[in-house]
Design goal:
Elements: E1 16-19, E2 24-27, E3 30-31, H1 32-38, H2 41-50, H3 56-68, H4 74-82, H5 89-98, H6 111-132, H7 146-155, H8 161-173, H9 181-190, H10 196-207, H11 210-213, H12 217-229, H13 232-241, H14 259-269, H15 276-295, H16 305-315, H17 323-344
Helix pairs in contact: 1-8, 1-14, 3-6, 5-6, 5-10, 6-7, 6-17, 8-14, 8-16, 9-10, 9-17, 10-17, 12-16, 13-15, 14-16, 15-16
Pathway: Carbohydrate metabolism; tricarboxylic acid cycle
Keywords: Transferase
Catalytic activity: oxaloacetate + acetyl-CoA + H2O = citrate + CoA + H(+)
């Protein structure tokens, strides 16, 4: 028996491949390094949904469909205006996405449905955040691409190109990551022939848990401390001497370099000198890996995707409450791809459990 189904193969997929031993992540046959540094969010989303890259016409149509579906409905605005102020953002997303569950989303799920849900999530986040901050809602703009529009709605001004580039790379790298907890949750719900909205609501509820979608707040704290102190090596040595865990290093799946971290670093190296937090992250990684090898030789502790994600969140001044929702705004593409794949050759998930309780009637024989 494997608790939590760890290591158990539950399905076949052609969406992504993870090789933790060798540090590989592949979307539809393409290495993640190539995807993050050569393509835009919309192109990689198209790849995951359709299994191939779009031509110019297909890309234009996808962008137009995303733009068309960015706008909140009157009833969604009414719900958002009446939600309690102490409801966290992931619960807000779960509630508003659930309100999408009309007869339009009947079995089987479609790519058009997936595009609609993907398009609306950034608008939900931006509307809620600006309302909590006492700021007017900034409507989406149809002449901006998906990631650029997200930043525009949050801040009310067009973002700098470095901010768009870094966040877009992060969102491409987190679109999909195999049979993780939230993806499994979505596929289990879909296996009952429930609708796409129900499957994605399940996934959001799973992502909300800190063991899965937890924000890289520990990395933020590390970067803040080093920035204030001014001595990277001193801060890291102090932490290692006190046996503290160095946040942003090591991963439960990858026993070597996290390929998403490598791809994100390649993007950020092109932006050196454009943002102090991105510059600091590159410096901290170099020092930390050297010291980790000194203090923990042979452990192969390298940066994970959360490390550079934290630097990006700092560079675009994203509030910590938006870290997991932003992760959700990208992972929605992977979730919907898996739900559509599940529907193509569906089998109801029905694992067994091992009973370890008592038998009151001891005469029962098995």
């Amino acid at each position: 028996m494997q608790k939590g189904l760890k290591g158990i193969v539950a399905t076949e997929t052609s969406i992504s491949f993870i090789d933790g031993d060798n540090g590989r992540l592949v979307y539809r046959g393409y290495e993640i390094n190539d995807l993050a540094n050569k393509y835009c969010f919309e192109e990689v989303a198209y790849l995951l949904w359709y299994g191939q890259f779009p031509n110019d016409v297909e890309l234009k149509i996808l962008k137009e469909e995303l733009q068309k579906n960015r706008h909140l409905t009157p009833y969604q605005i009414e719900i958002l205006n009446n939600l309690p102020t102490n409801m966290e953002m992931m619960s807000v997303l779960r509630t508003i996405i659930s309100s999408e569950g009309t007869s339009e989303y009947s079995w089987k799920p479609t790519i058009s449905q997936a595009i609609k849900l993907t398009a609306i999530i950034p608008t939900i986040i931006a509307y809620r955040k600006r309302k909590l901050d006492g700021k007017p809602f900034v409507p989406p703009r149809d002449n901006l691409n998906h990631v650029e529009n997200y930043l525009y709605m949050l801040n009310g001004t067009e973002p700098q190109s470095a901010q768009v580039t870094s966040l877009e790379s992060y969102m491409i790298l987190t679109l999909e990551h195999g049979m993780n907890a939230s993806t499994f949750s979505a596929r289990v719900t879909a296996s009952t022939e429930s609708d796409l909205v129900s499957a994605i609501t399940s996934a959001i509820g799973t992502m909300k848990g800190p063991l899965h979608g937890g924000a890289p707040s520990g990395v933020i704290d590390l970067l803040n401390e080093i920035s204030s102190d001014g001595d990277t090596e001193k801060v890291i040595r102090n932490k290692l001497n006190q046996k503290e865990k160095l946040m942003g290093f090591g991963h439960r799946v990858y026993i070597t370099h996290d390929p998403r971290s490598i791809a994100l670093k390649q993007t950020l190296l092109k932006l050196i000198g454009e943002d102090k937090w991105l510059d600091l992250a590159v410096e901290v990684e170099k020092c930390a890996i050297r010291l980790l090898e000194e203090y923990k030789p042979g452990r192969k502790l390298y940066t994970n995707v959360e490390f550079y994600a934290a630097a990006i969140m700092k560079s675009i001044n994203l509030d910590p409450s938006l870290f997991t929702p932003t992760f959700t705004a990208s992972r929605i593409v992977g979730w919907t791809s898996h739900v559509i794949e599940q529907a193509e050759d569906n089998t109801l998930y029905r694992p067994q459990s091992l009973y370890i309780g008592k038998f009151i009637n001891e005469t029962v024989k098995f």
